[in-house]
Design brief:
single chain; alpha/beta; ABC transporter transmembrane region fold; Rossmann fold; six-stranded mixed β-sheet; four-stranded antiparallel β-sheet; 24 helices
Length: 644
C-alpha cells in the first residue's frame, strides 16, 4: 500500500506542480481544522508512539538473538522476558492502530461533512447563469473527488509525514549507532529504486491521464444517451451499431490502459521489493562477515536487517512528501475556489418580510444585464483556458410598470425582447442592475427570501419534477402539507382523478424529470404544487407552450383556479386569452414600446397589432406567411378565463 501511494504521488507530480495555489490557502486550512485540533493532537500522539514501537521491536529481536547465541546463566529467562515484551508491544501497537483509525475516520469524515455541506449550500445560492455555464460533472467532482482529496490532508498525508519522519530519524539513528558501514552500504542501492520509479511514474501519469479523459467521454456519452430525452433521440435518429462500435473502441482502449497500469504498478512494487531484498542481502553478507570476525554481534546483524525494511519505505515516501502535501493543498484550493465565488442573491442582515397577502407589483426604471462569465463562474468548471470577460449588453432598459392586486398582465413581444427576464426579477432569480422591483411596497432586495418565495409562485413551460414521489414533489412547495391539502391542490389543478387511478396514488414515483407523465399531466402536477404553496402573486412563463389542444384545455382549466383572486404576470404563446388581460405590455429590445388593453393595441396598428395579425394569419391555411412567422413568441396574460 505504501509503495502504491508513493507511485501515485509521483504520477501526479507534474499536474500538482502546475497548479498555482491562492494566497492564504494554508491559513484557511488551519482555521478550517480548528474544530478538530484536539482530535488531531491525539491522532498525532498515537502516530508517534506507533513509529517508536516500529523501531523498538527490531531492537528487542536483536537482543533475543544475542541472548540465544550468548547463552550463560539466565539466558532462557531473558529470552522469555524479551519475547513477552515484544508481544506486549504488538498488543499496544494493535490498540494504537485502532485508535489511529478511529481518530482518522472521525477527523476525515467530519471534514468531508463540513466541506460538502458548505459547498452544496453555497452552490445553491449561486445565480442561475452559473449553472448554465458550469459543467455539472466538474461541479460534482468538487463535491466528491476534491473534498476527499482535502480530507486526505488530515489523515493519510499528515499521519504519513509525521510517522515517516519519526520512523526514519529513529531508524537511521539506531542503525548508524549499531554499525555505520553496514548502514551506508545498505542505503547505496536506494538510487537504483528511486530513479527508475520516477520514470515509471511519468509514463503511468500519461496513460492515467488518457484513461481519465476516456472515462470522462464515456461517462458523458452514457449520461446523454441514458436520460429520457437522449434515449428517445437515439431511438428516433440514432445508429445503434455505430454508437456501439464507437463506445466499444473507447472501452477497449480503457481495457488496454488498465492492463498497462496493472503491469507498471506491479513492476514498481516488485522493483521496490527487489531492491529492499538486495539491500537486506548486503546487510546479511557484510554483517555476517563482521559478526564472524567479532566486530558486531549476531543480534546486531538481525536488528539491522529488520530495521532496513523499515527504512526504505519512509525514505521513498518522504522523497515525494512535497507532492503529497501539494496534492492535499490543491484539493483544498479547488474547494475554496467554489466557496469564494460570490453568490448571486444574498439576504440582507436587516431584511424585512413581505407583508402577508401582498399582491401589488411595481417595476421602477429597471435596467438589467446578465453578468459576465468571470463574475459568476470558474474556468476550471467550464473547461476553458480563460473566462470571457466581455460585458453583456443590457437586456432591459428602463422598464417601468405597476400591477395592482388581483390584476393580470400580459408580457408580449418577439423572442429575445426580455419577457422571461422581466418575470425572473420578481422572485429574485436575478437582481436588477439598476432601478427597483417592489412587492407590496418592499424592494425585493430588502425582503427576506423566505417571505418572497412564499409570496411569489412560478410555473414555467417545462416545469421540473424530481425523480421522487408525487407527494414529495408537492411537499417541495410546502414541506408540512397534509394528504388532504395535497388532494385539494390536485383537485384544483384538475389532476386528482388521474392520481387516484395510479396504483400507488400520491406515492407514485414520477420518474426522471417527470417523464412518466404526459406534458399536460406534468404541468398540472406543477400547478398543484403552486396551489399548495398558495402564493398571492403568480408568474406563468409560457405554461401551455408545446401542449396539444386537449392538454392545453386541461391546463387552462387548472390555471383558471390557480389565477383566481391572485395577481398574475403571464408569458404565453397563445394570444387567444390576451383579450382578458387587464394590461398588455409589449416589449421590444428590452423596452416597453406599447401598453394597454387588447382592443386598444390592435387599433393602434403598432408591434402588438402586427404580432396579432401574424399569429392569426399563420392559423389560417390560406394565409400567406409573413416575415414574423418564425419569430413570434407571444406573452399572454389570461385572467383565468378558459377559451374553448
Amino acid at each position: 500500500m505504501q509503495s502504491w501511494s508513493m507511485l501515485r504521488s509521483i504520477q501526479t507530480s507534474d499536474r500538482v506542480k502546475q497548479h498555482q495555489l491562492s494566497r492564504g490557502t494554508t491559513r484557511r486550512i488551519l482555521r478550517f481544522a480548528a474544530p478538530y485540533r484536539r482530535d488531531i493532537v491525539v491522532f498525532l500522539v498515537t502516530v508517534v508512539f506507533d513509529a517508536g514501537i516500529g523501531v523498538a521491536t527490531p531492537l528487542l529481536a536483536g537482543h533475543v538473538v544475542n541472548a540465544i547465541t550468548g547463552g550463560g546463566h539466565g539466558a532462557a529467562a531473558l529470552v522469555i522476558k524479551l519475547a513477552i515484551a515484544i508481544a506486549l508491544l504488538a498488543v499496544v501497537d494493535a490498540f494504537l492502530s485502532l485508535a489511529q483509525r478511529w481518530y482518522s475516520a472521525r477527523i476525515g469524515e467530519g471534514i468531508i461533512l463540513n466541506l460538502r455541506t458548505r459547498v452544496y449550500d453555497h452552490v445553491q445560492r449561486m445565480p442561475l447563469q452559473f449553472f448554465t455555464r458550469t459543467q455539472t460533472g466538474a461541479l460534482i467532482s468538487r463535491l466528491n473527488n476534491d473534498v476527499v482529496g482535502a480530507q486526505r490532508a488530515f489523515t493519510s498525508t499528515l499521519s504519513g509525514v509525521v510517522s515517516n519522519v519519526i520512523q526514519l530519524v529513529l531508524t537511521a539513528a539506531v542503525m548508524f549507532s549499531l554499525s555505520w558501514p553496514i548502514t551506508v552500504l545498505s542505503l547505496a542501492l536506494l538510487p537504483l529504486f528511486i530513479i527508475p520509479a520516477r520514470r515509471v511514474g511519468k509514463r503511468l501519469a500519461d496513460i492515467t491521464r488518457e484513461s481519465y479523459n476516456l472515462d470522462a467521454k464515456m461517462n458523458a456519452t452514457m449520461t446523454e444517451r441514458f436520460n429520457v430525452s437522449g434515449a428517445l433521440l437515439v431511438k428516433l435518429f440514432g445508429r445503434p451499431d455505430t454508437e456501439a462500435a464507437k463506445f466499444g473502441e473507447r472501452a477497449e482502449r480503457v481495457r488496454d490502459i488498465g492492463v498497462q497500469q496493472a503491469m507498471f504498478s506491479r513492476t514498481f512494487f516488485v522493483a521496490m521489493l527487489l531492491v529492499a531484498s538486495l539491500a537486506q542481502a548486503l546487510t546479511y553478507g557484510l554483517g555476517g562477515w563482521l559478526a564472524v570476525t567479532g566486530s558486531v554481534t549476531a543480534g546486531t546483524v538481525v536488528t539491522l536487517a529488520l530495521l532496513l525494511t523499515r527504512l526504505y519505505g519512509p525514505l521513498t515516501a518522504l522523497s515525494n512528501v512535497r507532492v503529497d502535501v501539494m496534492s492535499a493543498l490543491v484539493s483544498f484550493d479547488r474547494v475554496f475556489e467554489v466557496l469564494d465565488l460570490k453568490p448571486g442573491i444574498d439576504e440582507k442582515p436587516d431584511a424585512v418580510p413581505v407583508p402577508a397577502g401582498s399582491g401589488r407589483v411595481e417595476f421602477r426604471d429597471v435596467h438589467f444585464r446578465y453578468p459576465s462569465a468571470d463574475e459568476v463562474s470558474l474556468a476550471t468548471l467550464e473547461d476553458v483556458a480563460t473566462l470571457d470577460r466581455t460585458e453583456h449588453a443590457p437586456v432591459l432598459k428602463g422598464v417601468s410598470f405597476t400591477v395592482e392586486p388581483g390584476q393580470m398582465v400580459a408580457l408580449v413581444g418577439p423572442s429575445g425582447a426580455g419577457k422571461s427576464t422581466t418575470s425572473m426579477l420578481l422572485p429574485r432569480v436575478y437582481d436588477v442592475t439598476s432601478g427597483a422591483v417592489l412587492v407590496g411596497g418592499v424592494d425585493v432586495r430588502d425582503a427576506t427570501l423566505d417571505s418572497l418565495r412564499d409570496t411569489v409562485g412560478v410555473v414555467t413551460q417545462d416545469s421540473h419534477l424530481f425523480h421522487e414521489t408525487i407527494a414529495e414533489n408537492l411537499r417541495y412547495a410546502k414541506p408540512g402539507a397534509t394528504d388532504d391539502e395535497m388532494w385539494e391542490a390536485l383537485r384544483g389543478a384538475q389532476v386528482a382523478d388521474l392520481v387516484r387511478t395510479l396504483p400507488d396514488g400520491l406515492d407514485t414515483v414520477v420518474g426522471e424529470r417527470g417523464y412518466r407523465f404526459s406534458g399536460g399531466e406534468k404541468q398540472r402536477i406543477a400547478i398543484a404544487r403552486l396551489l399548495l404553496k398558495h402564493p398571492s402573486i403568480v408568474i406563468l412563463d409560457e405554461a401551455t407552450a408545446h401542449l396539444d389542444s386537449e392538454s392545453e384545455a386541461a391546463v387552462q382549466r387548472a390555471l383558471a383556479v390557480a389565477l383566481r383572486g391572485r395577481t398574475a404576470l403571464v408569458i404565453a404563446h397563445r394570444l387567444s386569452t390576451v383579450r382578458d388581460a387587464d394590461q398588455i405590455l409589449v416589449l421590444d429590445q428590452g423596452r416597453i414600446v406599447e401598453r394597454g388593453r387588447h382592443e386598444e393595441l390592435v387599433a393602434a396598428g403598432g408591434l402588438y397589432s402586427e404580432l396579432y395579425r401574424t399569429q392569426f394569419a399563420a392559423a389560417s391555411p390560406a394565409a400567406a406567411p409573413t416575415p414574423f412567422a418564425d419569430e413570434v413568441e407571444i406573452v399572454t396574460v389570461p385572467a383565468g378565463t378558459v377559451e374553448p
